[in-house]
UniProtKB/TrEMBL annotation:
GO terms for molecular function: hydrolase activity. The keyword Hydrolase applies. This is Alpha/beta hydrolase family protein. It comes from the Bacteria. The lineage of its organism: Bacteria, Bacillati, Actinomycetota, Actinomycetes, Pseudonocardiales.
Amino acid sequence: MDRQRSVGRGVILAAVLGLTGTVLGMPAAAAGPGDEPAPPVEWGECPEDVPDDLAQLQCATVPVPLDYSDPDGEQIEIMISRLASKNPDKRRGVLLLNPGGPGGTGLDQPNFLSTQGMPASVLDSYDLIGMDTRGVGHSTPVSCGFAGDQEYAGNIPPYAVDDAGVADQAAIAQGVAEQCAANDDEGRLRHLSTANIARDLDRIRAALGEEKASFLGYSYGTALGAAYASMFPERADRIVLDSNIGDTHLDHDGMRRYGQGMEETFPDFEKWAAARHDAYGLGSTPEEVRETYFTLAERLDEAPVEGINGQVFRLATFATLYREASYGGMAQYWQSLLHSEAPVSNAQTDPVAPSPHDNSWSVFLAVTCNDVEWPEDVETYQRAVAEDREQHPLYGAAAANITPCAYWQEPLEPPVAVNDDGPTNVLIVQNQRDPVTPLRGGELLDEKFGDRSRLVNVDGSGHGVYVLGDNPCALNITTKYLVDGTMPQKNLTCDAA
C-alpha cells in the first residue's frame, strides 16, 4: 500500500513541476542584443547537482541585462552547459535546448537527450547547449518564498466542483501574487518573460561566437522557440518545436486546452486498463474505466484518503497521461484507492521549511503572468469553469480555474507576436493525443507561422515526440531537418508506430 501511494505522489510531482519579428513596445536600444560585444565563454566543470554520469558536460556563465531597456544596468548570470560535437568535420553549429516549464532546469538536457537516443548524426552536427533560463536554479535564481505547508497546489490550479471552489481558489491565488511581490526584494521577478528569455538566447548565441543558432524546444520551449524565431528571424537557424502550446506565451485559453488534451488522451488509458481488467479491476470496457475515474474522484471529494482528495487524484491521473510507461503505476494506485478505507492523514509538513518547488513555481508564475494580461475578475473564471466542467468533465474545471496571474502586476510589454515573414525554418512536431499540449496547439502555431512552418502530425499519445517518443517517421523527419536542412514540402501525418 505504501509503495502504491508513493507511485501516485511521484506522478503528482511530475504534473506540478511540468507545467509551459518585432516585439511591440521593445525599446530601440534593446532591439538587437546579439549585436552587442559578447565576452568569451569560459568552459569549466558543471555544478555537482547537474546529472552527468558520463562526465560529458561542461558549464559556463553568460552575463545578460536584467532589463533590456537598460542594457548597461544590472547584469544577471545565465548558466549554460555544453555537450560538444566529437566530430569537428561534421559540426555545423549549436543547438540550443529547452525542456519546457517555464521553471525547470535545463543544464542536464544535452546529456539526457543523448542517453535517450538522440541520433549520432545530430550529436556530430551540433554542440548541444542546455541552460537554466533566467531566474532558474544556477542562473541568478528568484523566489516567491513558498513554504512546505503552503496551501498552493503548484502550476495547475485545483479542480473546482462549483463557483464556491473558484472563489476559494481566488483568495489563495491573490495571496500568492501578493507574497511573490513582497518577496521580490531585488525587483527581478518582473523581468522574467519569454521575450527576455529569447533575448538571452541571442546573447548566448553571440557569446558562443555563432552567426546563427538552431533550437529544439519541448512544451513551453515551443513558445520560447517561436518567440526567438519571431524576434530574430535572421539569426534563428533550424527551429524544431515539439508539443506545442499554440503561441509565444501561455494564457488562460492555452491553459484551458489542458482540459481538451485530457479528454483526447484519456481514452488511451481507458483501453489499456480495460484490456487488463483481470489484473487491476478498473473496468472491463473503456466506458467502465471512465466511470471508475468519476466514482473515485467524487468519493475522494467527500472523504480524502491519506491526504489524497479528488483534486489531487485528478491531477495525478492527468500527469499519468504524459507517458504510457506511467499507466501501470497509476492503475495500481487506483486499485488501492478503490479498496482503501484509510482515514485522512494528519501528518504535517514543517511550516518553516521552504518548499522544494519554490524556485520552479516562482519562475513559472513570473514568466506566465508577465507574458500577457490575464482576466482579473473572478466571475470570468467561474463561467469558464462551469463551461469546461460540462465540455471537458475529466479535468476542465481545473484547467479553467483561477491562478495568481489574475492578481499580478501588468506586463512591461505586450506578448511577442508570431512573425510569419521570414525563412521556412520552423518544424512543428505534435502528437495527436497529448494531455497538456493537445494537437490544436500545434495547428494554431502552424497557422500563425504560415509559410514559415511545416506541421508533422503524429498518430501518437503522450507529451513529447522527438527522441522522447517511439515514432520512427517523426524521428527521421526531424533528424533529416536538423542534420541536412530537409524541410517537408507540406504538412504531413506520421502513422502510429
